Amino acid sequence: MALSGKIPLAFWDEFDSPLDGKKLGWLRFFLAPMQDGEFQQGQLTHPIGKAIFVFAGGTSSSLDSFTKSKKQRELVEAKVPDFLSRLKGFLNVLGPNPQLAEGRDDPYFIVRRALLLRSLFERLTPQLFDRNRILRIDTGIMRAFLRVESYRHGSRSMEAIVAMSRLGSATHFNRSYLPPEEQLELHVDPHSFIAMVHHLELSEELIEKLARLNHQLFYNNLKSLGYVWGEVTDDKAEPKKHSSLVTYTELTAHKKEKNRAIVRDIPNKLAAFGYAIVPMRNNEQPAEFLIPELKEMAILEHERWMDAKLKDGWKFALQTNKEKKRHALLIDWERLPKEEKDKRLSQVSENIPRLLKAAGYTIVKLSQ
Predict the structure, then answer these.
(1) By residue range, what is the domain housing residue 57?
(2) Mean pLDDT across the stretch 49-61?
């Protein structure tokens, strides 16, 4: 290349690998070419002339880790100081995983993943793009690619997942094309990845719909228990009275928001135990919760309720007084009366599936 009058570029991949059992054994052979533009082969000296050398590390994630991950004596013996003195610049390629160092956040990892992912699809599956160069891909799959906590082998893992997917000549990346969990486990946490694929992002419109349905379930339950409307809730009156025994439209803004908070937290509770919300097909039945899971979800719901009350200025008291924002149930789960525990369990085991079914969704188990 030099003889043709052009400046050659040499890319040395994994230059920091060992040679003949010696750590960084290659470095000493780069010094003369870097310094003098020539190299020795036996008794012959070969001139290189001007050239650009690019060294890509394979054992260190940054220049700092390259120089500090070894003992000083090893660095000197391997000619690391001599090598570094000949460098004219460096670039730490961050890769697709978040770089969390010294307590600093890395909010741009998702942008790096997006750029890398698009280049992978353009190279491996160009048929997935429409005429406007828009990628045809399931939203859940895209979310998992971009938001999974980490890739075990960096960008190679991203490429492997795309390559392992059964795309063939497909023109849309559907969920059925993803590799099975045991193959995903080579490159990501499979349960987390699949959970993100199926995670339902609640739009404001859907939240409002679910909140309305949640209040309707609450309303129907009060009616079945013999409650009638009353300006002040009174469980001891005859008949029992409740101030929320009105339509959703008639609720105060504060009470509407309480219903929204309940439904917003549903995906979080389900995801904590490997469940996800998906659109219902053919009137399928929701997955059944295990007894230990039910209890833990009920505890999470009680803690959510308590947290909302405390943030709203409520405090514990032996007797509940709504006017003074005092409540007798602001206590931990173990101290709750059995009747209240049963209510929380019913909210999880009955209300959540019923609520989602009414909105056209169901619950699926993602992992065992």
Answers:
(1) 9-85
(2) 88
